[in-house]
């Protein structure tokens, strides 16, 4: 067994039969060709493992992209740039690179763990922005026959933490490159309340605000709430924020007048962190697995927790939130196998 401990941010001790890293799309194609000639085994492709819970050893091959290219492929007359990036590029290094090269848009997505390939599967998001809104195309190899396919933005079906790669085509394509459309002109997006609140609290001059200032603010906000990945294992937000029908939200708001809620597509979004905190789980521990004291949406491994410990903790939280509020919480994290 090859250890996967360094390949999941929860730091869960699990193994796999074979671990294969590739540096180009051609190398991935030849790995897939070789595997077709062998006895079939399960295959799973990971990114940085920042959204995974290994609940047992993986009985097959784990693939990982180490394609780390980054090239400007087009400059448009309206002041935009198309940037084609390898799926193994570390997300936050990309954000840094874009800002140092005068390309804007990704600053609100600073410090999100993970890699470029996963940004296109998971549609990572924070502080009012989602990766999918910058993605113009995704290049991927078909798992079945190694053929290359380019998906347009529309074919990716981006929605809240969701894409065609996560659902309809799950496991069927391995992403090699993602092309983002970024602006050469910086316009701050402070629509997310926590961010505008911080700008106001510090009495910052909006006219002087640079993209690096926004990045620094986002980094500070994240560091104040989320555990440092090198110190405490976690997968960031463990659950997605549920969207409930308007009538349901109204009834709950009567019973809980302080309940935060936001209009969203399809209903009203209620922060999962608030529901978990109300259900009494914030800061609680079950053995080595626990709920982060500064942000109830984050489950953590205090050292030595297994994937089963995390699974069991998450199920108990789901049961309590369902019993108290009649709301089902859905994990953002993915259980493997
Ligand atoms: N809240 C609580 N208790 C807590 C924390 C938050 O009641 O312990 C309530 C507060 O009322 C707060 C509301 O929840 O106003 C929302 O909290 P926050 O703004 O911190 O955002 P979130 O909904 O908890 C989402 C993303 C994060 C992203 C932040 C900032 C999801 C699942 N999570 O969290 O993404 O960083 O917004 O934009 O949508 C991630 O996906 O790994 C992640 C960290």
Structural account:
Strand 6 and strand 7 form a beta hairpin. The chain is of the alpha+beta class. The protein is globular, with a radius of gyration of 21 Å. Helix content is 26%, strand content 27%. Bound molecules: uridine-diphosphate-2(N-acetylglucosaminyl) butyric acid (EPU). Uridine-diphosphate-2(N-acetylglucosaminyl) butyric acid (EPU) binds next to strand 13 and helix 7.
Summarize the structure.
By secondary structure, the chain is an alpha+beta fold.
By DSSP, the count of extended strands is: 20
What shape does the CA trace take?
Answer: globular
Individual helix count: 8
Alpha carbon gyration radius: 21 Å
Strand order of the largest sheet: 6-7-12-10-11
Mean of residue pLDDT? Answer: 97
Structural class: alpha+beta
Order of helices and strands: EEHEEEEEHHEEEEEHHEEHEEHEEEHE
Q: Approximately what portion of the residues adopt beta-strand conformation?
A: 25-35%
List low-confidence stretches: none
Bound molecules: uridine-diphosphate-2(N-acetylglucosaminyl) butyric acid
Helix content range:
25-40%
Distance between the termini: 15 Å
Largest sheet, in brief, is:
5 strands, antiparallel
Helix-strand layout with pairing:
Blueprint: E1 2-3, E2 15-22, H1 25-36, E3 43-46, E4 52-54, E5 58-65, E6 70-76, E7 80-86, H2 91-100, H3 116-122, E8 125-126, E9 129-130, E10 135-142, E11 148-152, E12 173-183, H4 193-201, H5 211-225, E13 233-237, E14 243-244, H6 246-255, E15 262-264, E16 267-269, H7 272-278, E17 285-286, E18 289-291, E19 298-301, H8 307-325, E20 334-336
Parallel strand pairs: 2-5, 3-5, 4-20
Antiparallel strand pairs: 1-2, 6-7, 7-12, 8-9, 10-11, 10-12, 13-19, 14-16, 15-16, 17-18, 18-19
